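Continuing from the previous page...

OK, I double-checked the sequence for SAM-dependent methyltransferase against my notes and this is the correct one:
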Amino acid sequence: MENVNQAEFWQERYEKNSTGWDMGHVSPPLKAYINQLPESAKDEAILVPGAGNAYEVGYLYEQGFTNVTLVDFAPAPIEAFAQRYPDFPSEHLICADFFSLSAEQYQFDWILEQTFFCAINPARRDEYVQQMANLLKPQGKLIGLLFDTDFGREEPPFGGTKEEYQQRFQSHFGINIMEPSYNSHPARQGSELFIKLRAK
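Thanks. Re-ran it with the corrected sequence; updated structure tokens here:
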């Protein structure tokens, strides 16, 4: 399981096109969330960590959001995104380990969670919560999806339960929403929680 902490593990999966988690388009619940945001939100600083092929980043950019940052520590998806969106500002494409980002350098209004939490070693989940809180401005939001199911295996995606997530996040976040997603992709129907958490 340790290799999921290595960029090489993920780079190899992209090179071999072994990306079964990839839906090929923006996640329906996240698209719906983005669509209801006010015009004033388009200048907010947004982070999408472990973004992979970053369909959500592309969608935000297409909708006129001007301050979106993509982070992944495998270069392949970042290079592919840059080819699809050649006008996207290169300084917002960061090839780095999410856990190494400095809160002194980066602060965001909200962070979009989409298949990143389930890709990291479960032993790092408390570290994830701490780092998310560090990178958010006061009262900043963590928005996205978490798997509400046990995949029963020792490789990603790693699942979990609502009870576990509540216990882990409550130390650093107020939980505004953590409920079953009603508009998930058909392949994920009944297995996702939509979350809206606010940094304390």
